Fold this sequence. Notes:
The protein is built from no helices and six strands. By secondary structure, the chain is mainly β.
Amino acid sequence: FPSHDTIGSTDEKKICGVTCREYDGELLMFTTETGDVLECAPDHLVPVLRDGKKLLIRADQIIDTDCLYKL
Length: 71
């Protein structure tokens, strides 16, 4: 991974598949303003709006001012 906290900006793309892997570690939990809950591993990439830009951020690097959005 790059040394900075963003992986890169995102373009609108179609999701073609989902993968699942075994994980035996700490999970992070995020609750949206609408009450939806996202639970994921710290290295999971999460789409956020930060300073008006759409980015994919590692879950363990999300900050309070980031806004999660659905792809």
